[in-house]
Specification:
The strands form three sheets. This protein has a six-stranded mixed sheet, with helices on one face. Strands 2-3-8-9 form a four-stranded antiparallel sheet. It has 324 residues and is of the alpha+beta class. The termini are close together. The chain has eight helices and 14 strands. Bound molecules: ligand DP6. The site of ligand DP6 has 14 residues, from helix 4.
Length: 324
Amino acid sequence: MRASAVAQPNIALIKYWGKQEVAGNVPAVGSLSITLDSLQTRMTVEFDDGIDADSLLLNREPAERMLPRVSQSLDNLLGSNRSPALIESSCNFPIAAGLASSASSFAALVVAASRAAGLQTDTLSLARAAGQASGSAARSLYGGFVELQLIEDKQAPDIAVASILEAGEWPMQVIVAITAKGEKPISSGDAMNLSSKTSPFYASWLEHQGHDLVVARSAVADRNFSALAAISEHNCLKMHSVMWASRPPVVYWNKATLACMETVRKLQADGVPVFFTIDAGPQVKAVCLPKSAERVSKAMQETDGVIDTMESSLGGGARLLNNP
Ligand code: DP6
């Protein structure tokens, strides 16, 4: 009745922004991401009929605010008449700061909970369960370069997720520049709902996502770094344009976010294979080929306003741990 799993965040290169108006948190667009390696969330789930209700410890502290979403995710996976659970989570990077901690958390949660409940659930079903809790979490079930596709069906739209290239098949290094700590002003889920209702650019965002996915997919298949860099930066800036034009506007960036983008631009001008991407937070992720990681990391660290950097190669999908 007890199991542990570990999962890493993923960074979307072609972003998920917007939900379909159906139950089950189904994204309005497909997306393509890379799964990281050294930033990790570990989850232990123990079902216990001897306790009254679920409890959640996050880095050894009670996490009441996050508990309802976690309990709901367990209900979706196992049914609401399941046993109450003790859930312990530990995370080695800042939470809720645009680093997809919810992605690694829910990916690890469904893997651990399914095993703790004695089930042998296949990876795609676990990805769908994780995606119900947080759309981007579906991608952290898989490693390397991952694509989430929509299965169009008016009554019951669904997702399919798969790794399109394993981590070792095209090594990349990701340098995350932390430009602010603390929680973001509005959650990505609330912000994307606001965008879908108020941003005049939202319809155009939906319309062009298929094209961006085709370009990114073929850049990955061809290991074409400059093509992947161009489409990733374009898709990122387009998503932020949709956010900025929402009412009220959703602006996650700060001065250092812009300074980091400038640093990446300068490196590119010097011929360094690197590009940036930014999610629902002020941190900047610089993605580069491993040979340039040292130079990129140093340049990001020296950028005005950068508090800290973290570095990761690409890694595998969520998995069980042997010693729960
Ligand atoms: C900007 O997966 O956090 O990181 O489904 O509401 O939990 P919910 O949203 P979430 O959104 C992620 C948005 C993003 C882009 C991405 O990861 O694709």
